[in-house]
Amino acid sequence: MSITRRLVAAGLPLAALVPAVAHARPAPDFTAVDADGKTRSLSEFRGKTVVLEWTNEGCPYVRKHYSGNMQGLQQAARADGVVWLTIASSAPGKQGHFADGAAAKAWLNAKGAKPTALLLDPEGKVAAAYKAKTTPHMFVIDRAGQVVYEGAIDDRPTNKVEDITGAKNLVAAALADVKAGRKVATPFATPYGCSVKYKDA
């Protein structure tokens, strides 16, 4: 068994073996259906800053941040005109799969989450295009359509809610740099969390 598989089997965060990628780079376009049944694409938000957030409602690392941290970040970002797309890429039968849009909306409502849209990606096509590894796995795309940040939401790779206090929120920092017209100081941080539940090959 590979080291990566041992880490996942042991329930440890999938983080240490994820390589960095080049930044900035063009953000792959995609099309997906949202929880309201509307077809959405990245290209419809051209000229805007966009956050992509991979999620899995059953993942303890996601639950950590949905204790209020993720919702607050969504609200602050959207107040600044940022488009926030939450993406559920768990395959049917896997942890975190939403059977339909109604189930996804029920979860959003229960959590008080306010993304621009929640995209359903059960085939994992959007996740594969971005090589999404974990939930959460965060991407910031600038107004020119370039990925300028990829990785963890913060610098505390645990599933403990109490560790949010004092952590550096790397997504918030990247968004602040983009808003100010600065080069993102930290363009990559190793993502941590549960593995994205892709469909079996």
From TrEMBL:
Residues 1-24 form the signal peptide. Pfam families: AhpC-TSA. PANTHER family: OS07G0260300 PROTEIN, THIOREDOXIN-DEPENDENT PEROXIREDOXIN. It comes from Caulobacter segnis. Keywords: Signal. This is Thioredoxin family protein. GO terms for molecular function: antioxidant activity; oxidoreductase activity. InterPro entries: AhpC/TSA, PRX-like1, Thioredoxin-like_sf, Thioredoxin_domain. Residues 21-176 form the Thioredoxin domain.
